[in-house]
Amino acid sequence: MKLTNLNCPQCNGYLNQERDMFFCSSCGAAFNVDYDDDDVNYTELVTQADRTRMLLQRDVDLMTTGYQLNKEMKDREMYRAQTRATQKAVKTAGKAVGAIFLYMFISMALMIGIFIFVWYRVSQSKDKVLSNKNEAYETIREEVKKDSNFMENMIASGSMYESRFRPDSVTDRSDGQRRTAWMVGIAEIEDVYLMENKKSKEQDLFFVYKIEYQYEDSEDTIEVYDCFIVKNLQLDKDGKLKLDFKGSRYAHFNTWNAFEDKDQLYRECILGKTGFTATKLDVTR
Q1: Are 170 and 248 in contact, with CB atoms under 8 Å apart?
Q2: 28 touches 13 (CB < 8 A)
Q3: Are 235 and 140 in contact (CB under 8 A)?
Q4: Helix-helix angle 37-146:148-165, to 10 degrees
Q5: Of 155, 214, 152, the residue nearest 185 (C-alpha)
Q6: Which residues pair with 180 in a beta bridge?
Q7: pTM of model > 0.85
């Protein structure tokens, strides 16, 4: 049967084409496709147009897909470039920070090393100085005890000092009378004390002298006591005690410019030096 249109010859319903057959949508009748030349030409035209439309759509889809792929590739490449740049910057910054910390660490290590070295050398120097001082003090202590020549010279020096700077006459106003007393002879040594400072360890010598005065109106005499002090004993280059004649007397504020009682001198001049250790020396040799 030749179909001149797309309507069913039986019920005039709409025909649907599937491959080489037509099927009525209303009554379900089936008809073979009987193409004539016009139908064939029409079908070819329709088929060609569909193919052209499909090809164009495919090209459009391909172009769209290519554009999207190209854009995605560019975006990914840009992301990779940014990531590489960021990683490079982080690595560069990390290296710079690491170099700074390494420099700081090396500098601190050098400073600590120098400090430890200086501290060690200073400690050694201090220890050596302290050791030398202690040895010197020990030597002085022993030399004072055994160097009779030094002791004799210092005793004579103190006696001369007392005779030179002590007044020859003293006016005594005791008992309501004015009596003048004159110094007799020279100052005589009574005791010698080695005084050692408990903190600094420096050593002094205290010479206790007895001075006799006689009243001019009688033969009555009076004995007074004075202390001659030589400070900071030193050793010379040969390890011997240096003779020092620049001593000083203990300050007194009384008529005799001295102690009238020897025990009082001992309590004030010797025991009164609370920061010192006193060692009485033998001067009978």
Answers
A1: no
A2: no
A3: yes
A4: 80
A5: 214
A6: 171
A7: no
Cα–Cα distances in angstroms (integers) from residue 234 to residues 164, 190, 205, 274, in the given order: 25, 24, 12, 23
- The C-alpha torsion from 197 through 198 and 201 to 205, rounded to 10°, is 30
Residues facing 24 on adjacent strands? 15
Sequential pLDDT tens for the chain (285 residues): 445 556 777 787 766 766 667 677 778 777 666 555 555 555 555 566 666 777 777 777 778 877 787 888 888 888 888 888 888 888 887 788 888 888 888 888 888 888 887 877 766 665 554 455 667 778 888 888 888 888 898 899 999 988 888 888 888 876 677 889 999 989 999 999 999 998 888 999 999 999 999 998 888 899 999 999 998 888 888 888 887 767 777 777 788 888 999 999 999 999 998 899 999 998 764
Beta-carbon contacts of 266 under 8 Å, excluding residues fewer than 6 positions away, are 208
CA distance 221 to 138: 43
Gap between the Cα atoms of 257 and 271, Å rounded: 20
Q: Quickly count: other Cβ atoms within 10 Å of residue 207's Cβ.
A: 27
Q: Which of 53, 31, 244, 33 is nearest to 153 (CA)?
A: 244
- 30 and 21 Cβ atoms separated by less than 8 Å: yes
Joined tokens for residue 51: 């193919």
The candidate with the shortest Cα–Cα distance to 236, out of 147, 127, 155, is 147
